[in-house]
Structures are given as structure tokens and as C-alpha cells.
Automatic annotation (TrEMBL):
Record key words, sorted: Membrane, Transmembrane, Transmembrane helix
Chain segments annotated as transmembrane: 7-27, 39-66, 465-481, 487-504, 573-591, 597-616
InterPro entries reported for this sequence: Nucleotide-diphossugar_trans (IPR029044)
Source organism of this protein record: Sinanodonta woodiana (Chinese pond mussel)
Keyword Plastid recorded: no
Entry protein name: Uncharacterized protein
Keyword Protein biosynthesis assigned: no
Amino acid sequence: MRKRLRVFFYFSIWITLALVAVVLNILNIDWSQTNIANGVFIVLILSIIQGSVFEFPVQTIATLIVGGNRRENKKAPADRLTIVLNYNLLATSKDDIDECFETMYEAFIGNLGPNVSAVLVSITNDEELKKYELEKRDTKRAVIYDELFHEGILFSQGHYNMIDSQRTKTVWQIYKDVDPTVFVSEYLDDICDKYTREFMVLHRVSRVVRKCGQYQDLMLLSEGESEAYSYCDPEYYGTNARPYGQPLFHASNDVSNVFERKFDYTLVLDADTRVPSGAVSELLEIAAAHPDSGIIQPAIYLNCKSDDTIFMHLESMRQGIFEPMTNAITALLGQSGFFGKGLIKNRVYIDKVIGTKDKLIERVSVDVLSHDTFEAAILQPLYAGSVYLLEAPSYNYITWHIRERRWNRGEILLAMYFWPNAFGRPMRFLQKVFQRKSFIMTQVRTPSKLDFVSSYIAHSALRQMFMKPLLLLFIILHINIQLRYQYVSIIIVMFIVLVFPKFATCNRKNFKGVFLETIASICQFTPEALVGTFRICWSLADNISPNVKWIPQRAVEEELKVSNPFVASLKHLWGYSLFALIASILVGLFIKQAFLAVIMFGTLFLLPFFTGFTSLSPNFKCRYRKQTQERYIENVEDGLQIMSRAGKFRSLGSLTGSSFMYNPELYYESQ
């Protein structure tokens, strides 16, 4: 009941503001000089725009009322819960693999425990890259073994202050009563070897359902299913269906290690997602206190280093500014969206999203891009803002733009399934016309029905996305409409979007950052009425085109890192500047009252300069890629020499960086 009252209060404020805006828009039009049809149309368009953006002041008011502090979730002991840290990868280069293994290693070693495993599920095509993935696995296994061996020797000697505190509690403390000599000679090897075997790589056979299918198959393998039974029906999925009974993964020792383990939870992660030390145990404790929750959604922090680009710092700053609003709204509505990275309860997920052999569900569409919306609709995630994962922000505006286009395509695809008649049928018709023989008719086996709150959360990105063409339409119609206060409406919209939300978050500590972020947002988002509309058009074309070719975002980033930022920005965005220049001249010559259009074209013309400037580091220097040397099972860190061999993870190294030397006679490599 209390949740219903909170939801009613939240949306009643929104509706009230929207109705007031409609009345004021009607009064603002000079009807004596305006065609009635045009006037009604502009009132409708403007009311929709303002109704959409009133989401921001309502969220701001809610934050001021309920508070934007991080909520501490109820916790319970989670010693018996098991979890797999699941990274998912489609590598196109060795750099992709290096980055993924580095983040996976940090997550695993920083959260090591007897109930924690780490599994990379790869759908990499290139055989050389797949081989390289296994080499990197063995390299990191060697590092893990020797790091644990090093700590084990320190533990046996009582040097507890030299051991990672997290691992002291989760790994070593249970052996505190074992005699040190016995511990080193009889226990340490098995301990180190056991944990190295929990750092695994699985190569998936199929690419059906993309990333979502990667961790779905991992869950099924853990439950004892080694062959495919989901997404095998050509009646629903056409040629996108995979053969029934096809192996889920290529056979390997790691596949055998996961089979029938029945992990309780899967922490789904992207290749660049970092997991801070101790975060896994906190998430499991929250999950233990909420056993009915299918997804525990931690906060996602955008983390950047001091020498990262200005744009990256702005993105991180923007997230920090709006974090209190996220905390308040999730507390007010009692649920959260799913960000594609979070803790999933395997059994609940399988029962509600995938189904069994005898009763298939398959709620996620086979051609999905934004799988998290389907999953959030069914499992209604619990937000755990006190725990966080780390990701790097977009490198600059260009890579942000590429990511937004990919997300727009995913939102359009979602709309085809959530509104199958109003939007899905026209899109399927266009796909059939343009794709011809390559057209594949697909459908969802079990459609997802959203309640009011779930629908509001799920379609937040879609609302913001389609606000941009509406804003462009208003700017165009604004030219022929006589308003009593010509620019008040658009000023209110910009104020509500860019300034008003800061009232709930600005304070003495962050006011400088808030000011800088506001100025940057004006430069970045003012052209979005036009750029965002173009992006939607491209995304629509991508969804109906038979030959969509995507340039990997990482490839663009690598190009930008070795290029002059201003030259690179002009190379990618020159078309916008040229369009803005020509359009400004034409508007200036033929249209008298076009101030809003001139402002939009002006910021659009300067977009390459804004992009180049924000691609610099905070000290206004160009950032160039630092060359790194590849390493293979040869790593010297803190004086620890790695001497491991494939298949065995035994250490014969010298601990030269430590205050003691261990006796190699106590430890030997079995042949």
C-alpha cells in the first residue's frame, strides 16, 4: 500500500505539471494571428515535449523530499551461496582479450573465496584469437598461483600485515590453526592449484541471443544441461534458431568443471567492467537477505584516471551529479532497471526467463540488442546503490555518439516487440521489402507484459530518444507560429533539462563541477535536436537494412588515441559543420524569425571543436596511446618470479622482495 501511495504521489505531480503546461501553451499563442490547425498542432507538440521533460523536475522534487543518499540494503550471512563472475567477450583483436582478462583477473583475485569462480564466455570467431584467449588464461592462472603461493608463505610465517586483508578473511584464516610446516608442505599447493582452476574460459558453440545467450548457456551448463534446448524452434526464430541438442560449449576441462556445479548466482559483466575488492561478498549478503529477488542491481560508476580525456571526466562528473536522483527514484518506486551488469539468481532466471525442456518460456527475443529491458520487466531488479561496479566512460563525443546509435537501434528493436501491431508490423513490412531473401521473420515465444512502474522504468531511454525529433519539429514549426512570449517555452524546456535537476544535487563541495558540467551539457546537447534525429534515422535504417556493417567502438578509440584530436574530430564530424553552415546561410537569407534554429546550427557547427577540445587531457595536452609489450607466463611483480608451466601451476620462484626466503625443500614440483 505504501508503495502504491508513493507511486501515486510521484505521477500525480507529473500529470499536474503537464496539464498546467498545456493551459499555459494555449494562452501563450496569439490566436488572432495564428492558423487554428497550426496552433493546435504546436500546442500538442510542445505539450508532449514539456510533458516528457517534466520527468526531470518531478525527479528533482522527489529527491529533495525523500533524500538522495545511498540506501543500505538489508543483509544476511551468505557463506553457503556460490557465485560465478561471468565476463562475456567477442574479441576482434588481442587488445580486446588483454583488456578483458585484466579486468577479470582483478575481479577474481580481489574477491577470492571458496564460493567464487570466474568464467569468461567467448564467442570469438578467429581461431588464432581463441588460442590467444587460452594462452592468456594460463598466464593469469600462473599469476594467481604464484600470488597465492607468495601470500601462503607469508601467512605461514605470521606476516599477516603483508597479505591482502580480503583474502586473509576469505582464504587463509581457516588454516590459522594448522602447523606452518604442515601447511606449506601439505596444504599450500592444493589451495593455490584449486583457485587457479576456478579461473576459466568457455568457448560457446552458438551466437544465438548474443551476450544474453552467453550467460544463459552458462547458467544451463551449471544446472547440468550440456546440450541446447532453448531457441531451437524455427517456427519462432527461422534460420536464427540453433539445432536442438547442439553442444552449448566446445568440450574442455573448464566446461567439465562448470557442469552440474549449480551456482546460486551469476554476476554478469562486460569485458571492461571492474569489480572492486569485497563487492562480491556484499552483493551476496544482500542477495541472501532478499532470496526472492531475481536480480540485484549494483550501482555502475564511471571511473576515470587523472590523465583521461576531459570528456571522460565530464561523463563521470555528470553521473556523480545525478546519482542522488537515481537513489531517490529507485527507493521511491521500489525497483530499478537492469543495466546489463548485475547479480542474477540462476534458478529464478531459468524458471522465469528461459524455461525448461518441457515448458519453454524464452522471453528474450532472438535478435535482441537491449536484453536487459526484457529481463528487468520480468525480474524487477532490486537496486543496491551501496555496492558499485566500475566502468570507463566513453573516450570522447565520437565514441559516445557511436554508443548512442547502437543503443538507439536496440530501443527501436524493443519497440517492435513491445508494440507488435502499432510499430512492429510496419517495421517488419519495411524489413521484408528491403532485406528480401535475407529477411527472417522472428517472434518472442512468451511476450512480456509490463505493469505501470516497470513500463515507466523500461521505456525511459525510449522517451528521451524520441524527444529529440519532437524538439526539432517544434523548432521548425516555431517559425510560423505567433507566440506572446516567443522563446519562453523553449527556455523552460532547456532550464528543466539542464539546470533544475542540479538544485537537488548542487552543494558547496561540487558547485564548480556542476557549473562546468552545465556549460558542457549546453555545448553537447543543444545540437541533439538535429544530431539525435539523424541518429534515430540511421538506427531505423540499420534495423531494416540487409547489410549493416558496424565499426567496433574500440577500433575508433584506438584511431583517436593516435591522432590529433581536432583533426580526428573534423574527420568524423565535418558533415555536421558543413550542414550547419549551409543551413544557417539559407535560414538567414529566407527566414526572419529563426533565432532557435540559428542557435542550434551554431552549436552544431562548433561540434567538432567541442569534441577536439574535450578529447584533450585536463592539462590540455593531447593523449597518445602508450605502447605496451606483450607478456607470456613471464612476469616479475614485487620480486616474485613466475616459473609456471602449462597444465601445472607450481612455483619455484624466489621471494626476493620479501623479508625472508622460503626453503625450496619444503616444496617441490611433482613430475
